[in-house]
Amino acid sequence: MLKFDNEGARRTEKLYASPDVEAQRKHVLSLLAPQAGECVLDVGSGPGYLVASIAEAVGPTGAVHGVDPSSAMNSLAAARAADMPWVHFEECGANALPFADGVFDAAVSTQVYEYVADISGALRELRRVLRPGGRALVLDTDADSLVWHTSDRLLHRRVLAAWEDHLVHPRLPRVLAGLMRRAGFHVTEQLVHVMFNAQMTPDAFSTSYMNSIAQFVVGRRGLTAAEVEAWLTDLRARNDEGDYLYSINRYMFLATAA
After folding, report:
1. 234 pLDDT more than 90
2. Cα separation, 93 vs 72, whole angstroms
3. Does residue 148 lie in a domain region?
4. Each residue's pLDDT tens digit, 101-142
5. How many CB atoms lie within 10 A of CB 13?
6. What is the domain count for the chain?
7. 191 vs 45, 109, 118, 185, 194, CA distance in Å?
8. 112 lies in a domain?
9. Which of the two ends of the chain, N or C, has the fewest CB atoms closer than 10 A to its terminal CB?
10. Where are the alpha helices (DSSP H) in 118-241?
C-alpha cells in the first residue's frame, strides 16, 4: 500500500493540483451538484481540494465533513479550508464513519474504495449516514483501462503489475454498481471520465504519476532500480520523439440512498 505520511501527502497534493485532476474535480462537482445549506460528506478527502470546492457551493449555512485515515492529509486539508468554519475533518477510515444515521444530504468518494478491503461494509456505512433519497457519487479506476505507449511492452507490463500491489481492488468499477445496489443504493447513472495526455508536460497528470509509480515499484516483483529507470527513460523518449500517449478511465457511479 502507499504511505500517506508527510512526504506522500505532499506528493499527492501536487498531483491533485494538476489540470487533469482539476478537470475531474469539476466533473464530479457537476454531477454531485451540492446546494447551498446542504450537509455533505467526502470519504477519503485527502488534501482537501474537493472539500473546499464543495464548501464554496454549500456556503456557511451548510456543512462539509471530510474523513481520511492520514493525519498528514488532514493537516493539509484543514489548512486549505482554514477560512471556512463550516468545514470539519475527522481521522478515520471508510468502514467506521463517526456520524449518526441519515445526517448527510450528499456524499462523495473519489479514488478511495479501491484501497478498502471490506468494500461492502464501507458502502453500507456510506448508506447509513445518508438520509433517504440522499445522493452519493463514487469514482474509481479500472487498471486495465490504462493505455500508455512504450517501446518495451514486456518491461511496461512488469512495472504495472508491481504498481497494482498498492491497490486492494484494481478493477473495482466492474462490480461497483452491483455492490452499491446491495448496500442499499439506487444507481441512477454510470459514466466515465477520461484522463488523457498527448504530451508529457510538467503539469500533466501522467508526468507526476510515472514518478510515483517508479518510487513504489523498485524492489517489487524483481524490478531493479536500473529497470525502472529504463522504463522512465523509454516514456521520456516517446515524448521527445512525438509519439507520447497516456489515457486512463475514471468510472463514476451516481446513486441515491433507498
Report:
1. yes
2. 14
3. yes
4. 999 999 999 999 999 999 999 999 999 999 999 999 999 999
5. 18
6. 1
7. 21, 15, 24, 16, 10
8. yes
9. N
10. 119-129, 153-163, 173-182, 205-217, 225-240
Contacts of 227 (CB under 8 A, 6+ apart): 155, 158, 159
Contact 90/98 with Cβ under 8 angstroms? Answer: yes
Residue numbers of the domain that contains 68: 6-257
Beta bridge partners of 237: none
Give CA–CA dist 185/182, Å, rounded.
7
DSSP structure string for the chain: ----SHHHHHHHHHHHTSHHHHHHHHHHHHHH---TT-EEEEET-TTSHHHHHHHHHH-TTSEEEEEES-HHHHHHHHHHTTT-TTEEEEE--TTS--S-TT-EEEEEEES-GGG-S-HHHHHHHHHHHEEEEEEEEEEEE-GGG-EE--S-HHHHHHHHHHHGGG-S-TTTHHHHHHHHHHTTEEEEEEEEEEEEESS--TT-HHHHHHHHHHHHHTTSTT--HHHHHHHHHHHHHHHHTT---EEEEEEEEEEEE-
| Amino acid code (one letter) for 87 | V
182, part of any domain: yes
In a domain, 1, yes or no: no
Q: How far apart are CA 44 and CA 107, in angstroms?
A: 11
How many CA atoms, within 13 angstroms, populate the side-chain half-sphere of residue 61?
5
Q: What is the pLDDT of residue 3?
A: 62
Residues listed for the chain: 258
Instruction: Report how far apart, in Å, the C-alpha atoms of 150 and of each of 45, 161, 226 are.
Output: 33, 15, 17
